[in-house]
Write a structure and sequence with these properties.
It contains 13 helices and 19 strands. The protein folds into two domains: 215 residues, no CATH class; 259 residues, Beta-galactosidase, Chain A, domain 5, CATH 2.70.98. It is elongated and about 105 Å long. Strands 6-7-8-9-19-15-14-12-13 form a nine-stranded antiparallel sheet, with no helix packed on it. The N terminus is likely disordered. It starts with 13 loop residues before the first helix and ends with a helix. It is of the alpha+beta class.
């Protein structure tokens, strides 16, 4: 939907569509095949604890089979548990999450994209059993053929503390045992809401946030298939609305391996566990919606996974402003309207100059028509004479374009904020608008918007070039069809913007024509 905006560049209203289309394709691509590997820097560390326990020995164990995909995980065999606000199912094979029903405004969404592999699977060759003796947390245990006892615990998060997956290996023999290079996987893919499933295959990606360097707070890198991410603050997979991120310790895990469909595989570095000893691995993780408000609270840059496009800093400020206005209005639709009015007030000096320039051009139309008749057969002389007249009269044919050009970053930033921010998903406005992040189901808003644009075009002076006149005549129709599949929140912004501009133009008509 956001890739069909390539229109001819002009200095009229069409600049919006052209520039927006270019920037969407250049700076905000749909990652069908991720193509950038992670860069270097310091890695995020997680809490790792080693603890002593009683043990006996056995021969060193071979690394467990990493091919979790070869084993079909039947959700009917899984235990239903509560993980935070989500209802999850954990399968005995590898203690993998084969279902994760995450609460959302319109119901619950399944975040496990491939139940055959599940999420957070470990030791896929082992059959785990839930240890109900633990009242706090969810614990699964299994014993390997060499006698090494594996305990896997899902620890809840609280406040600014992320939930964790804790794996403890206890040596119950009298000889040292090698824990082996066991794996923990996230993917393949990530589930999403029903309306996004068609696009989800194109939107899914493996990504990592690089460490801060040279005054930058790190950057998001989309990872290639087969890449080993050497340094990152966090690594994970995501789609438009959801994120599964991991923060493994580089001290105890090798560089994560990326595969497609997006899948992250962590491999633990081999550890020799002494007799009567144990070893603990702990991996903080996040699994849920990409809401800027609650992702920011963790202070590790998870909110950077939200794609605000090229003008990301504007998009984040716009969302912050919308959140503030939402706190006052308790309705995202009215917050968008309020933000539009505020922007109109801030941009009024430029709008006034634009209207003055348009009014001046309108007064010159009779003289322009005479020049067109006089130099009908000589376009070079017509251009020279027209420019000389503009210079003499002090008119600027480009003066009316400045406010539109300055609003382009706002338009693009708001588009990405409304399209990719979870806060607006399922947010109703009034009547039939039940989701401001989705298109208007009855196309009322884009049709009304197109009508206002047509009215505005009639109020403005006609373009001197006949070809440009035709373009401007069809522009309201083009915008109407283009906006039909845009988020209704974005159409509401543009509709309000057009309405206020029209009212201002009518109210100031006498002053402009004086």
């Amino acid at each position: 939907m956001d890739r069909n905006l390539l229109l001819a560049v002009s200095l009229s209203v069409a600049v919006y569509a052209a520039w927006f289309g270019f920037l969407e394709k250049r700076f905000n691509p749909q990652p069908v095949k991720p193509s950038v590997s992670a860069t270097a820097g310091s890695a995020a560390s997680s809490s790792i604890a080693a603890s002593g326990a009683k043990a006996a020995s056995a021969p060193a164990a071979a690394s467990p089979a990493p091919a979790a995909a070869a084993v079909k995980l039947d959700a009917a065999e899984a235990d239903e548990v509560q993980l935070g606000d989500a209802v999850a199912k954990i399968h005995p094979r590898g203690a993998a999450i084969v279902s994760f029903l995450y609460p959302e405004p319109l119901g619950r969404v399944e975040l496990v994209h491939d139940a055959d592999q599940g999420l957070f699977g470990t030791f896929p060759d082992l059959e785990f059993k839930r240890d109900v003796a633990f009242k706090k947390g969810i614990v699964y245990t299994a014993t390997r053929a060499d006698g090494l006892k594996i305990s896997k615990e899902f620890l809840p998060g609280e406040g600014t503390v992320l939930p964790r997956v804790r794996v403890v290996a206890v040596n119950a023999s009298k000889r040292a045992v090698d824990a082996g290079a066991w794996t923990l996987t996230v993917g393949s893919g990530l589930g999403t809401i029903e309306t996004e499933k068609k696009e989800n295959e194109k939107l899914q990606r493996a990504l990592a946030l690089t460490p801060a360097a040279k005054g930058l707070n790190g950057r998001i890198e989309t990872l290639k298939e087969g890449a080993h991410a050497e340094a990152f603050r966090w690594i994970g997979i995501d789609n438009r609305y959801f994120l599964a991120a991991l923060l493994p310790s580089p001290e105890h895990f090798s560089a994560p391996l990326v595969s497609l469909p997006p899948k992250i595989t962590l491999t633990a570095k081999p550890v020799s566990i002494p007799p009567n000893g144990s070893f603990t691995w702990e991996v903080p993780y996040y699994l849920g919606a990409k809401g800027q408000t609650w992702l920011s609270r963790y202070g590790i840059g998870l909110e950077r996974s939200i794609d605000f496009g090229y003008f990301a800093w504007i998009g984040r400020k716009m969302l912050e402003a919308l959140e503030y206005l939402h706190g006052l209005t308790h309705n995202w639709g009215w917050a968008i309207l309020a933000l539009t009015l505020i922007l109109q007030v801030l941009l009024f000096p430029l709008t006034w100059k634009s209207l003055r320039a348009a009014a001046a051009m309108k007064k010159l139309q009779p003289e322009i028509a005479k020049l067109q008749q006089k130099y009908a057969d000589d376009s070079a002389k017509l251009s020279a004479a027209t420019m000389e007249m503009y210079k003499t009269k002090g008119a600027n044919p480009l003066g009316g374009c400045l406010p539109m050009v300055l609003q382009m970053p706002i338009f693009i930033a708001l588009f990405n904020a409304l399209r990719n921010s979870w806060e607006l998903h399922g947010a109703a406005w009034i009547f039939w608008i039940k989701d401001l992040s989705a298109k208007d189901p009855y196309y009322v808003l884009p049709v009304v918007m197109g009508g206002l644009m047509f009215l505005q075009s009639k109020m403005n002076p006609p373009a001197g070039d006949p070809a440009q006149q035709k373009v401007m005549m069809f522009m309201p129709l083009i915008f109407t069809f283009m906006f039909m599949n845009f988020p209704s929140g974005l159409v509401l912004y543009w509709l309000t913007n057009s309405l206020v501009s029209t009212v201002v133009q009518v109210a100031l008509k006498d002053q402009l024509e004086a």
